[in-house]
Specification:
Helix content is 57%, strand content 0%. By secondary structure, the protein is mainly alpha-helical.
């Protein structure tokens, strides 16, 4: 796309604090969420009635270029309000969300997901982010967010049902570095299930993770990345195992999965896209940020005295720094989603 289509936004860097990030990120999120075009549709056309403009079919999640980016952009707004309730922009942002989160717009999203041909729509990535949006509302626990959550509960229930139906049907995990990867989405769903105290989802994810990844050894991390990756297959898997295992079990598993971490380092170097106007190539900026995010999850599960923590911290910081200017030098091809990954990396550990 030409730069006239992919708008350029001001820079903010990963080393800044959460308040500074919010000041820069909020206008980007709000503008993107109301931007209908360009738009990548992800549903199957079953009949000619499915030929609708994005805002007609999905009146809430129509912006940000694609459905899943709109979903996690709303999750980001709620997270920012939850973590910074004293901020000057707090009430204005809640007002924005209140206009968007109408009962009718959310019902239309539910109707969209119930149409013929949508059983696997946005599985697993977008549906996992939908659960995270609900997770942020539940964690916020204010009168207003609780009211919004009531609107979202039918969507939340459907999303959980689809995860419980879809994941066990897979004969193998999906180890790609893009949206269909199972480990990353399972990690998101795990976070939601813990807050929701959804025992069945937690049990399903734990069992599948053990079956799919429990005996993995010597991850071929030197083969990463593929040209279009925004997720690390190895690190997302390790981050998931860090969540579902006890610290001692995870430490032993990591010994086999990524051996020699303490002596040779992680074996991953930050990478940069050759063209940030290309929506696929700019994925590599997201890869740097998601690697940093996953490494924090891994580090959290290891004791500070573990000899692997130092090389992991160095790798985490290198990746966080590598794409710190991706929004300044990027375009809408990447800025419609990279801010969310920045937020979750920067705010890791600030609040669950």
């Amino acid at each position: 796309m030409h730069r006239s289509t992919w708008a350029v936004y001001p820079c903010f860097v990963l080393s800044m604090n959460l308040s500074e990030l919010a000041q820069n990120l909020l206008p980007i999120l709000k503008e993107n969420l109301l931007r209908e075009y360009p738009n990548k549709q992800g549903h199957v056309l079953v009949t000619s009635n499915d030929l609708q403009a994005p805002q007609e079919r999905t009146p809430l999640f129509y912006g940000c270029f694609d459905w899943h980016s709109a979903v996690h952009s709303y999750a980001s707004l709620i997270r920012l309000c939850r973590l910074l309730p004293e901020a000057s922009w707090y009430n204005q942002t809640l007002e924005f969300l209140g206009k968007q989160f109408s009962a009718s717009s959310i019902q239309a999203e539910l109707d969209h997901l119930k149409r013929p041909g949508t059983a696997t729509f946005e599985m697993p990535y977008g549906i996992a982010w939908l659960l995270i949006l609900c997770n942020e509302l539940r964690l916020s626990n204010t009168e207003q967010t609780s009211n919004w959550l009531q609107y979202f509960e039918p969507l939340e229930e459907l999303a959980a049902e689809r995860m419980l139906h879809w994941l066990p049907k897979l004969s193998f995990p999906i180890r790609t570095g893009e949206h269909t990867q199972t480990a990353f989405s399972m990690g998101l769903v795990w976070d939601w299930a813990k807050t929701k105290d959804h025992t069945k989802v937690q049990t399903t994810i734990r069992e599948l993770a053990h079956n799919w990844y429990g005996t993995d050894e010597n991850a071929p991390i030197a083969y990463e990345p593929s040209a279009h990756d925004f997720l690390s297959p190895a690190l997302c898997e390790a981050a998931l195992m860090a969540k579902i295992q006890s610290p001692s079990d995870f430490s032993s598993w990591l010994d086999l999965f990524l051996p020699n971490l303490a002596t040779s380092g992680v074996g991953l170097e930050p990478v940069l896209p050759s063209d940030r106007d290309d929506g696929k190539l700019v994925h590599l900026d997201g890869l740097n940020i998601s690697r940093a995010w996953m490494l924090q999850t891994i580090l959290q599960a290891l004791p500070q005295t573990d000899s692997r923590t130092q090389p992991l911290r160095l790798c985490q910081q290198a990746h966080a720094d590598a794409s710190s200017e991706c929004l300044e030098h990027g375009t809408y091809a990447g800025t419609h989603w990279l801010g969310t990954f920045m937020l979750y990396n920067i705010s890791f550990g600030v609040s669950s």
